[in-house]
Specification:
Length: about 70
C-alpha cells in the first residue's frame, strides 16, 4: 500500500463513524468512475504482468485455478 493510502486511512480513522462511511462511499465512487469493471492494473500489477510475460513463466500461486476452463 502506498504512503498516501496509509495516510488517508489514518486520517479516515480519526473521523466519526458516520463520516468514515461517507468518505468510504466517496472513495468507492472515485474508484468506480476511474475503473468501472476493475480491469485496470496498478503500476505494481503492470510491472509484474510484464515481467511474467517476458519470462514465459508464472507462479502457480498466481493462477486463479477456479476460473480455468470457464
Amino acid at each position: 500500500m502506498s504512503n498516501t493510502a496509509i495516510e488517508a486511512a489514518r486520517l479516515m480513522n480519526m473521523l466519526p463513524e458516520s463520516d468514515q462511511n461517507f468518505a468510504f462511499e466517496f472513495i468507492k465512487k472515485l474508484v468506480l468512475a476511474w475503473d468501472p469493471d476493475y480491469t485496470k492494473l496498478t503500476k505494481e500489477e503492470a510491472e509484474a504482468l510484464e515481467e511474467a510475460e517476458k519470462s514465459g513463466f508464472i507462479l502457480d500461486a498466481d493462477i486463479d485455478w477456479s476460473k480455468i476452463g470457464q
